[in-house]
Specification:
- This protein has 15 helices and 6 strands.
- The chain is an alpha+beta fold and about 350 residues long.
- It has 3 domains: about 100 residues, no CATH class; about 120 residues, Alpha-Beta Plaits, CATH 3.30.70; about 90 residues, Arc Repressor Mutant, subunit A.
- Strand 2 and strand 3 form a beta hairpin.
- Helix 2 packs across helix 4, helix 11 packs across helix 15 and helix 12 packs across helix 15.
- The N and C termini lie far apart (about 75 Å).
Amino acid sequence: MSEQGISARYLDGFAGVLAEVASTGRRLTREELKTRRTLGEQAAEAGLGLRALVVAHLAAARAAWPVGPGSTESTLAALAAVEQAVDVFAEGYERAQRLTVRREEAARREFIDDLLYGRSDLGRLAERAERFGLRLSRAHAVAVAEGPQSYGEGGAVARRVEAEVLARFDSHSILLTTKNGRLLCIAPGDTDEVLDHFARQASAATEGGRVAVGRPRTGPGGVVQSYEEALAALEMAERLGLPGPVLRAADLLVYPVLARDRQAMADLVQHTLGPLTAARGGAVPLLDTLVAYFDSGCVAAEAARRLSLSVRALTYRLERIHQLTGADPADPAHRYMLQTAVIGARLLDWPNQPL
């Protein structure tokens, strides 16, 4: 169908109504307004531009305008009819567009849920992914950002991060979204610069929030794995107090290994650090001392500074730990066991939680 034919279809009956209004001075009927509104909806669903359609209405009004002298009343009636007709046409057009946007948003959200939960047929999921710019036959990595508040789709923070990322990189292969109050970026696994840029922008937009990046994985199931790795990295960082705004799951692989056998880890913590509970004030101050000591590279002066203690006080605590546990933090032969037990205690939230 030609452009002229398309325009004529959505102007159906407009010229005749306008001529009648100009001659009689009547207002548009409810049925006529409904017809124009419906045509507006149909034009939006057909993908036509509203500007061109409004211009077509005005051109049709000019062509149908009565020739010769006329009363002021008939002129005003005709102008009012044009105004009403264009207004309800645009109303129908905008309503159809809103419905289309909502359907697209619902389809996008359903796809993201299926993708990140590993639901749906994998072949069908791969087909749907192409609609959103993802080719799941390639490796993809997922970056997850969280901050002090929950972030929703279309919110100011999500829009800001999305604009910053898409202004720099090709949007066809990147999917930016939110999930459970967190910001997500799904990108091809060989585009580290995309995930790095997202991490910087997300950290800044969330006012110092933390970002974790999963390892690149192939296939529909690979996106789920990378996403879960990023979530696990965020949880690990929270428990262990790991520094840095950006974490990479590949750099934290030792922690899942340590946590894999929970009972063995609990036994190690109980055997190695359990005696600290006999100290005056409980195990927490001495456990914090070990954390600071190991985090500072076993440099007593730095550990004392982090704990706001004198070096003498720190040394006393280390000696007390040696007395209670039989393991000397300063002795390389004992250090690995103590440090592993400290990591286990933080993973298991001991002594706040019983083993």
